[in-house]
Each structure stands twice: as structure tokens, then as C-alpha cells.
Amino acid sequence: MSEIHRLAELLSPAELWLVISDSFSPKELAKLCNSLGISYDGMRTKSLPPERLVVDLVEDFYEMESSAQRIVKALKKANSSLLSQVAHTDPSGVRALLKEPVELMGENRVGRLLFALAVDPRQEVNSLLPDLLARLDEVLPEEDLPSTGDGDHPTDSKQRDLEGEISKLKSKLQMIQGRLRKLQKENSDLSRERNLWQNEKRELEQKVLKLTQKIQDLKFDREREERLASQIKKLERENRKLRYQLENPSPPPKERGVEEAIGETLTALQSQAMRIREAIDEEKETLQALAREIKGIKVGIAELKPLIETSQTVRRKRRGERERVGIFVDVQNMFYAAKQFNGRLDFQKLLHSALRDRRLIAAKAYVVQNPESDQSGFVSMLQQLNYQVKRKDLRLRADGSAKGDWDMGMAIDMISLADKLDVVVLVSGDGDFVDLVNLLKTMGPKVEVFSFPHNTARDLMEAADEYYPITEALLMRSEAPLREPI
Q: Do the bridges between strand 388-393 and strand 343-345 make them parallel or antiparallel, or are there none, so unpaired?
């Protein structure tokens, strides 16, 4: 069980509310809310009441694991001295610490002690939480009690139980109200986004109509171009015929003089040759203008394509959504690459490094297994880390050699999920994936490659949008000889 889940079980929302209230000043609360992306439309965070900020932090703790991790980190930093004191004290000493007089506990001491007892890994220390909760009525007004327990006055236990339930319900109501405000803001943002998308859609439809009309005009111009080409060929034939007649004039009629007949023939030929040149020049200009227009239409089509392909990505960015990530691990390739360092790849650290603050859609690990080797423990470990494990048996050839790879299966999975992802993370150094990476990039998502540099094809590094080398920080050292995964 992770530390976050354990804290969520040990502390109720009302108790966590007391822990956060006692651990941070109003300025620190505002700073923490800003770092988690908690915002308020039209209002500055530091101008809001601290109680409102604490309620939103409690809500984020129970709803988002990434926010919960950052809240716990900030609480540990704020209470580091008390955590160190409790960690270096045995359970009996901690019990004695809880029995100190109220005036020695100091301001905001109870909430800090609650956190110190809950975060301590020792079960004997965790079991002291009810003792501390039983003393809350000594340091807080009854209406502010975060929870109830068996107190020192049995006759008042029912009253304290009711007051504790009321306090919990008030905290829950505040969290629900905060959530409602967030949903109202999200609804308003979605409405604005829908209007923007409708405007974009109308603009794209108009561009498509214009380009469709230009394509129809282009078809007509092509027919015209063919007619002009036919006319040019006809004029060229006539031109050649006239040149032949000019070079080989016919004998003049007997009744007319030779010089007069030759002069008339030359004049006629020159006049017709000039008309032919003028017609050819005019048709050339027409064809050049037509070529420029065709080129402009092609450019317009090329500009429209990325607008359509990236419209969904633009909408997601405007809403502030996190990128959707799919992680695909070639386990066999990673094993042999890590073996040169006498270590094993830490798949949990790999998952965190590849995911960062983005949204995980799928994490798949592809394993080739030898029927003679038990891989159940390794597969179970991957499944506990939220990997979907896909297994394939090693194939034995007739000549005694063995063959086993997942290249085609990985390619099919990545292509089938491409339209649901913004980023594809390939964990392999195999150069056979270069063509797949280039194909995925044309389909929309970015492609990131994680691998050992010494075991990675250079063209795979260059094909990826981002390349991240796996270093020793992602390895687990092993003194014993490593067994092969297949």
C-alpha cells in the first residue's frame, strides 16, 4: 500500500483539514494552491479565507494522487523537525509526548502531531492516533473538533460523537460547494470552447467550399489547356508547312512576272508567320497563368490539412488538459541492454520518467517467455506497477535455433491507439521501429523514445520527436548473475 493510500485510510477529511490548517500560514496555503493549479475565477488566491483554501486542498488530496503527493511533500517539509523527533523516539516515548500538558504542546501542535503519527511507518505509533484525537477537546473549541473518539468523560461521549459528525458533515459540505464552483467554472469554459470550435468549424467549411470550387475550375482549365495544346500543335504544323513553301516556292504563273510572284508569296508567308508567333506567345502566357493558379490551389490544400489534423489538439490545449500518453516497452531489448551494466531496468522509475505530469492512457510491456523458465514473478511485478503484460512463447526452429520478438504486435497496438494519444513513448533501441515512428508522426501523436544510447540505432534517435537516454539512475544493481527473460 502506498503512503498516500495509507494516510487516506488513517485520516478522515476533517482530520486532514486540521493537519493542513495547523501546518501552514495563510500565505503558505495560497502558494501551495497556486502550485497545484487551484484557481478562482476573478479572485486572487491570497485574498480568500484560509478555511476555503484548506477545504480545496483536502478535496484535491482525496481526488488526485499527483496533488496528494505534492501536499504530503509540503507537509513533511513544514513539519520536518517534529517528524524527526517522532521518528527517533520509541513508541513509549511518543505516548509520553502525547500526555504533555496542553500549554506545552504549543500553537497548532495537535494538527502537526496528527500528521507525524499518521506518516510514521511504525504501526505501534499509528495506533496512538485515537489517544491524540481524544484530547482534541482540550486544545480546540468543541465546534471545531475534526473528529471524535473515546474521551475521558463517558457521560459526554454521545454528545461528542454528534458534534464530531456535524463537523465532518460541515467539512464535506464545504468540499462539495468547492467542487460545485469548479464544475460551474468548467461548464462555462466548455461553453466558450464550444463556441470557438463552432466558429472554427464554419471557417473550415467555408475554406473547403472555396477549395472545392477551385478544384472544379481547375478541371475546366485542364480541358482548356488540352484544347490550347491541340491548337498550338496545329499552328506548329502550319508553320512548318509555310516554312517549307518559303524555302521551296512554286513556279510563278506564266502570265505574271517571276519577281512579282515571288514577292507576293514572301509577303504572304511573312504575314502568316507573324500571326502564328503572336498566337503562340499568347497561348504561352495563358498556360503560365494557369500553372501559377494550380500551384496556389495546391498550397491552399496543404495549408488546410494541418489545420484539420490539429484542431482537436488545439481544443485540448485551450482547456488546459494534460497530454494523453501511451507507453510501450520492448522488455527483451531492455533486458539485454541493461545486462551490459550488470543491472536491471527499474520499471517503476521508467514509468514515472516517461509519464511525468501527463495522463496515462496505456502502459504495455511485451515479454517473450521460454516455456522452460518460470516468469510468473516478473510478470506479477509488472502487473502490480499497472503495466498490461502481453506474453508470447519462444518459437523453436527446425535447425534448433530460437526466435521470439514482438515487433509486429507492438506496431499494431501503437497504430490502433494513435488516435487516442497525444504522445507515444517507445521504450526500445531497435532500428526496425524507424518506419513505424515516421508513420505514427503522420497520424498525429508525437513520438518519444527511451533507450540505452549504446544499444540504440542512430536513425531511430533522429526519427523521434524527443529522445531520452536511459542512465544508471533508472537501473537496479544486482550482484548475482542475471537470468535471461526468455
A: unpaired
